[in-house]
């Protein structure tokens, strides 16, 4: 008989007890997260109407300290580190983000491989002030270059090689520059013995960069990088740090950590119409993401960031911002967040049943039976293991196999895979139209976009609020403006606003994109009304009046929205206010020009004159 390896009852009990104890310990470990110490950041509570909090479920977060109205400033922060994006690289100062001046230089002509072509020269535009060693950092002035010298000095040699290192390892140059920017901040903070405690202010012009020490409080979310990609990142960073002077040198694991921290916590800002990426530790630590945010962040001209409430907020309510574009379907937002921020969104909007959420319209496909309701498929899978999803995002697609979607207003059902086919066909057609536009064929592109509307909206296939349809109108509005078809552009702009405002709760009235659509509509209407004012036919009259009315109400909406987002006395709000006044004046002047001139009432002594005049007329007759 073979020797038995069966455990005794005692051993079994002991093993079971050990397993239970381990599970309990594990549970305790999971439920007892270390309480984060917010004291380093507590100074913000003295300057702005906010309170910093920590909870087991949310971690660090920030709430309103009292009831605050829309447009209240809740954070001002200057980035710990920032980089100018590739497309804006030579346009703005790498220190203060002001536009740089450009000079034309003559240099030996280079062929496609970068070799000099004998005897030939070419003219190139270069910034007036730039680092002559690395030829990478551009500045607006000598003074700015000097102010940036300590930070730049530790980056210079590596910056010169960033593009070649990036190409050799297929790692984005922006991510390598971001690590260098953080090394620069660390080095300057260290050499100046700077306090690790951030100083808070309510004014961007007095804000100081958040200390490097706060960057290290951020979550690097390291798990998101695939093994192969990580190897390339490590190889690239090894070459980068080899070029950093000893005084600022960091280890390879530290460099990888900084790479992950920047990438998963960065904010993209538009500063002086150019693109900047930056890390704002206080904002990144405390403001959670929501797909229905109550706050909005904007870049100031010096690269500081303001966060303001977009709606009225009551005391103790969480303050949140959106890390992604909110005018897109739930699935798309969640995927974007997964890929860029490395978490699965559990905000209130994403956690609400689709049938009860505004999201049902955003990727809505209409019911072919009743042509009224949209088809609903409730996703039941809760993503627990983010690592699993990161390594296999197709798990989301497998979820729909064999499932049915139901119409919200009639008993019709359809396989979800069939709905996906409809959506895929729409996405293909949408993509074709956009490719045509990218090739520069505006006429054909416009034709294809208008056909998209006929095929998918007029035939009741997509919900009118479907994000692809709304985006089609947005593109049409831009194409028509470019082609000079302003009346059409106005019509499409109006549809965009009506769609975005049409789904209650999807987009706040002060959402920056919506506010700017009001501004562009008002602007076009005012200009077009001025052009058409000379046409005094009944049709010309009613069009001019309609445009002037539209200009007034849209400038009003833009002024309100810009006051909330940028502040009441900001140049952008004041620009909208000035144009609103102009539209009102134009409207009044135009209306007045149609007022019937009162017939001259004969004065008391006039009858004799009138009679005289009449007599004269009849005499001459
Ligand atoms: C604002 S920090 C949160 C603070 C951090 N947990 C702490 O205590 O230090 C950002 C992180 O919170 C989580 N988070 C923020 N918004 C979220 C959302 N809507 N759904 C799920 N997780 C979210 C993500 O893990 C994200 O990386």
Automatic annotation (TrEMBL):
The keyword Zinc applies. Residues 48-324 form the SET domain. Residues 601-621 have a biased composition (Low complexity). GO terms for molecular function: zinc ion binding. Gene3D superfamilies: 6.10.140.2220, SET domain (2.170.270.10), Tetratricopeptide repeat domain (1.25.40.10). PANTHER family: HISTONE-LYSINE N-METHYLTRANSFERASE SMYD, SET DOMAIN-CONTAINING PROTEIN. This is SET domain-containing protein. It comes from Coemansia asiatica.
């Amino acid at each position: 008989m073979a020797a038995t390896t069966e455990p005794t009852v005692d051993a079994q009990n002991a093993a079971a007890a050990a397993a239970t104890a381990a599970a309990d310990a594990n549970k305790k470990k999971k439920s007892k997260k270390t309480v984060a110490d917010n004291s380093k950041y507590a100074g913000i509570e003295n300057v702005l109407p906010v309170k910093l909090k920590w909870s087991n479920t949310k971690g660090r977060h920030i709430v309103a300290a009292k009831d605050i109205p829309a447009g209240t400033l809740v954070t001002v922060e200057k980035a710990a580190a920032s980089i100018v994006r590739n497309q804006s690289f030579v346009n703005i100062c790498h220190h203060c983000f002001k536009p740089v001046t450009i000079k034309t230089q003559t240099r030996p002509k280079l062929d496609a491989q970068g070799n000099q072509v004998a005897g030939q020269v070419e003219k190139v535009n270069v910034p007036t002030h730039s680092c002559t060693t690395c030829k990478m950092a551009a500045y607006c002035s000598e003074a700015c270059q000097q102010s940036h010298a300590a930070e730049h000095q530790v980056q210079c040699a590596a910056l010169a090689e960033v593009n070649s290192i990036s190409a050799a390892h297929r790692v984005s140059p922006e991510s390598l520059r971001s690590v260098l920017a953080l090394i620069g901040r660390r080095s300057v903070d260290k050499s100046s013995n700077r306090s690790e405690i951030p100083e808070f202010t309510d004014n961007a012009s007095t804000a100081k960069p958040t200390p490097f020490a706060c960057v290290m409080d951020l979550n690097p979310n390291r798990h998101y990088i695939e093994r192969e990609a990580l190897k390339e990142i490590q190889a690239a960073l090894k070459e980068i740090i080899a070029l950093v002077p000893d005084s600022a040198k960091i280890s390879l694991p530290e460099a990888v950590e900084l790479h992950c921290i920047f990438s998963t916590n960065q904010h993209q800002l538009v500063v002086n119409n150019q693109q900047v990426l930056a890390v704002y530790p206080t904002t990144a630590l405390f403001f959670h993401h929501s797909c229905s945010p109550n706050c909005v962040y904007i870049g100031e001209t010096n690269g500081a960031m303001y966060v303001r409430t977009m709606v009225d907020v009551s005391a103790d309510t969480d303050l949140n911002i959106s890390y992604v574009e909110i005018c897109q379907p739930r699935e798309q937002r969640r995927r974007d967040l997964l890929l860029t921020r490395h978490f699965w969104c559990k905000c209130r909007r994403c956690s609400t049943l689709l049938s009860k959420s505004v999201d049902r319209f955003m990727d809505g496909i209409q019911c072919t039976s009743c042509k009224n309701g949209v088809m609903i498929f409730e996703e039941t899978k809760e993503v627990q293991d983010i690592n699993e999803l990161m390594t296999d995002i197709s798990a989301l697609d497998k979820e729909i196999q064999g499932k049915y979607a139901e119409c919200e207003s009639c008993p019709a059902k359809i396989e979800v895979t069939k709905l996906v086919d409809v959506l895929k066909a729409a996405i293909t057609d949408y993509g074709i139209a956009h490719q045509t536009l990218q090739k520069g064929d505006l006429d054909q592109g416009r034709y294809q976009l208008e056909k998209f509307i006929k095929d998918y909206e007029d035939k009741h296939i997509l919900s009118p609020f479907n994000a692809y349809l709304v985006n089609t109108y947005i593109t049409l509005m831009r194409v028509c403006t470019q082609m000079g078809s302003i009346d059409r552009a106005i019509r499409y702009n109006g549809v965009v606003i009506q769609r975005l405002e049409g789904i209650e709760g999807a987009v706040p009235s002060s959402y920056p994109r919506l506010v700017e659509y009001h501004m562009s509509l008002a602007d076009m209407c005012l200009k077009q009304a001025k052009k058409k004012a000379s046409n005094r036919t009944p049709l010309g009259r009613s069009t001019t009046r309609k445009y002037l009315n539209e200009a007034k109400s849209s400038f009003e909406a833009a002024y309100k929205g810009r006051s909330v987002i940028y502040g009441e006395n900001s140049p952008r709000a004041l620009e909208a206010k000035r144009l609103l006044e102009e539209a009102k004046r134009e409207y009044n002047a135009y209306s007045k020009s149609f007022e019937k001139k009162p017939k001259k009432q004969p004065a008391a002594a006039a009858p004799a004159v009138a009679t005289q005049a009449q007599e004269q007329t009849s005499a001459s007759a």
